[in-house]
Amino acid sequence: DSGVTQTPKHLITATGQRVTLRCSPRSGDLSVYWYQQSLDQGLQFLIQYYNGEERAKGNILERFSAQQFPDLHSELNLSSLELGDSALYFCASGGGVRGSPLHFGNGTRLTVT
Amino acid sequence: SQQGEEDPQALSIQEGENATMNCSYKTSINNLQWYRQNSGRGLVHLILIRSNEREKHSGRLRVTLDTSKKSSSLLITASRAADTASYFCATDQTGANNLFFGTGTRLTVIP
Q1: DSSP for B5-59?
Q2: Are the beta carbons of A42 and A103 closer than 8 angstroms?
Q3: Least CB-CB distance to B42: which of A2, A98, A101?
Q4: What is residue A94's three-state secondary structure?
Q5: Min Cα separation A24/chain B (Å)
Q6: Higher pLDDT, A106 or A2
Q7: Tens-digit pLDDT profile for residues B73-83
Q8: CA distances (Å), A100 to each of B43, B45, B51, in order?
Q9: B42–A98: do the CB atoms touch at under 8 Å?
Q10: Contact list, B96 vs chain A (CB under 8 Å)
Q11: Chain A nearest CA to B50, separation (Å)
């Protein structure tokens, strides 16, 4: 058990809709990272937060947004969903030291129909 | 792309054999990490090797790093069926704030 909790585990929704994915980091970790994993693809980095502040941005679409709250949990909001957004979305947490190992949740599997 | 690339994409071996997978990357790094992912689950960190290290061991895992060739290899000795998973390398690149993951090697160990 990594200590990182992601909800929901599965999400099925229609094109054009908006969803929110939630992540609670491992106790003591200040950083939260979001990654997208499409079928047979590697992990695409979306965004990182550290102690409530955005620290790094990757290939995150404008339709996607995220935030980290004072209690350090994070939410990833996906709007105007398209079929191509169907993927596994992972949250990972770390202590905030650059290059330190990450602890991953088990992901949210999003299916857009 | 800043991602690494694993080779081979898929590997199938018999239980007891050794499995070797390779990772190549394009930029200078501070460290390189290997992760394992069981089907549909989150990634689990296996081992980290720093840019000034050439080899590291952890149990049945052996990792090498050649920064001049920008490549790393992961060797799993005496493989077990439970080692069946996808394996990813991830690089902590100089000047970046996040890890960049490769595309993974899918390992199947046949009992």
Answers
A1: EEE-SEEEEETTS-EEEEEE-SS-EEEEEEEEE-TTS-EEEEEEEETT-SEEEET
A2: no
A3: A2
A4: strand
A5: 14
A6: A106
A7: 999 999 999 99
A8: 14, 10, 13
A9: no
A10: 56
A11: 10
